[in-house]
Write a structure and sequence with these properties.
It is a single chain. Helices cover 31% and strands 29% of the residues. By secondary structure, it is α+β, with helices and mostly antiparallel strands. It folds into 3 domains: 2-193, Anthranilate synthase, CATH 3.60.120.10; 207-315, Aminotransferase class 4, branched-chain amino acid transferase, N-terminal domain (D-amino Acid Aminotransferase, Chain A, domain 1, 2-Layer Sandwich), CATH 3.30.470; 319-469, Alpha-Beta Barrel (D-amino Acid Aminotransferase, Chain A, domain 2). The strands form 4 sheets. Strands 16, 17, 18, 19, 20, 21, 22, 23 and 24 form a 9-stranded mixed beta sheet that branches. β10 and β11 (211-214) form a beta hairpin. α1 (24-35) packs parallel to α10 (349-360). The radius of gyration is 26 Å and the shape is globular.
């Protein structure tokens, strides 16, 4: 709420909330969705202006600045948007004056503050008590640090009472606001109930070393080289209503990588049966799914050498989640050069960091560059462009051989397109029209922008590719 250190004062308004994702991919999408929300941006900007006005009453003229606006902060169950406002206290003003000028915080009253508080008093059936008040300290040494008390509870006669809520604007969606309120209360509810349940009440099931287990009980030894060094491989596969797309190609890629990296025969597993068992045990028969197959080194005294696992989750297309027609890209500033890029290994931290970089810069994907600054891929997808009748595919010394890209190039070749693979500098590649990404889950998606520059597209190409990709 308010922090004072000497004559410097700071407030950090928080507005805009969305639930954390159930998977890494969904988590990333939710973060991007929040940062691009027009409604939440307007709500945060309104509160920033209110707090600027409040602290301007007791600070030096011209000293109030917005140091940072709309920063994405992550917590256990939610993302928040946060801004930082700073100023310098007038020489004749004290901590008490600052508190009088700002309390209660605008992020939990609304604008205009006085009229909003009158409406709150009229509509809310009980007093807020410490909720949305403040907890902190005021010292005798020109320092003060006060929070806004929102995640708080009172215990009376063995019953726990707590409040959650959210800000609304004129065009707020009541259902979304209600869901946001439930998301905010989730941590306290789960802590008090002592358990976390999957939606629908049933625990998700996984396939581990030949057995179906509760997914939260899937275990790998901390001493295995798969865990310690990323000595393993995985494949992500799309399944729609029981149809498994390109399974043979995915398994072939994984098995070849295993033979090359570990000089060993890959495990003889009928992965199709594994996937169908996951569908059956999770009641996913008529659903769209993302299935992950995983094999890793796991040498144990018992003679065990390999860890095997399969996981399935419900899949919603990224564009549907983001409510967008395509994806925005940003260049990851750290080029990549490693022979491991040829394989889908568990040593995936570089791509994870690239994805985080994109999210923090309000983009959807990060372009991965080679050491000579030519284009390679993105953190989750293959990339290509279509210029006139030629498909331009960036070539790299080391890059994952995309299963979906391979199918897409076959589709386009059969349609009469020429396929050209060559090293392409990023500056040149960005000039091409019809730039698209492909991976197993999304299929083909349009690239809307690269580093803020818009990419032109012919409407029919992407939809034609996807129609062929997911034809049953």
């Amino acid at each position: 709420f308010i922090k004072q250190t000497g004559r410097t004062v700071e407030t950090r308004p928080i507005k805009g909330t969305i639930a954390r994702g159930k998977t890494k991919e969904q988590d990333h999408e939710n973060g991007v969705k929040l940062t691009q929300s027009i409604k939440d941006d307007a709500e945060l900007t309104m509160i920033v202006d209110l707090m600027r006005n409040d602290i301007s009453r007791v600070t030096r003229h011209g000293s109030v600045i917005v140091k940072e606006h709309k920063r994405l902060e992550s917590y256990e169950n939610v993302f928040h948007l946060v801004s930082i406002v700073q100023g310098e206290l007038e020489e004749d003003k004290t901590s008490v004056d600052l508190l009088k000028a700002t309390f209660p915080g605008g992020s939990i009253t609304g604008c205009p503050k006085i009229r909003s508080m009158e409406i709150i008093d009229e509509l809310e059936p009980v007093n807020r008590h410490v909720y949305t008040g403040s907890i902190g300290y005021i010292s005798f040494h020109d320092t003060m640090d006060l929070s806004i008390a929102i995640r708080t509870a009172a215990i009376v006669n063995n019953a726990v009472f707590f409040s959650v809520g959210g800000g609304i604007v004129s065009d707020s969606d009541p259902q979304k606001e209600f869901q946001e309120t439930l998301d905010k209360g989730k941590t306290l509810m789960e802590s008090l109930s002592g358990m976390v349940k999957k939606e629908g009440g049933d625990k998700a099931k996984a396939w581990v070393d030949g057995k179906i287990v509760d997914q939260d009980q899937a275990r790998v030894s901390a001493t295995s080289s798969g865990f310690q060094y990323g000595a393993g491989l995985f494949e992500t596969i799309r399944v729609d209503k029981g149809t498994i797309f390109r399974l043979e190609d995915h398994v072939l890629r994984m098995n070849k990588a295993w033979e090359t990296l570990f000089d060993d025969t890959p495990p003889d597993i009928t992965w199709k049966d594994v996937i169908f068992s996951l569908i059956r045990e999770n009641n996913f028969k008529d659903k769209s799914l993302a299935v992950k197959l995983l094999i890793s080194k796991d040498e144990q005294p018992s003679g065990k050498k390999v860890f095997l696992a399969g996981f399935a989750r419900l899949y919603t297309h990224r564009l549907e989640m983001l409510n967008k027609k395509g994806l925005d890209l940003i260049t990851y500033p750290y080029p990549r050069q490693t022979p491991l890029a040829d394989y889908k290994t568990l040593n995936y931290l570089y791509y994870e960091q690239a994805g985080r970089f994109a999210m923090h810069h309000h983009a959807d994907e990060a372009i991965i560059l080679n050491p000579d600054f030519t284009v390679s891929e993105t953190n989750t997808a293959s990339i290509f462009a279509i210029k006139d009748n030629t498909v331009m595919v960036p070539e790299s010394d080391h890059v994952l051989d995309g299963v979906t890209l391979k199918t897409v190039l076959t589709i386009l070749s059969n349609k009469g397109y020429d396929i050209q693979k060559e090293s392409i500098p990023k500056e040149m590649f960005c000039l091409y029209p019809n730039i698209m990404l492909t991976n197993a889950l999304m299929g083909a998606v349009k690239v809307l922008t690269i580093d803020g520059e818009r990419i032109e597209h012919r409407k029919e190409i992407c939809s034609m590719i996807n129609e062929q990709l997911f034809k049953v």
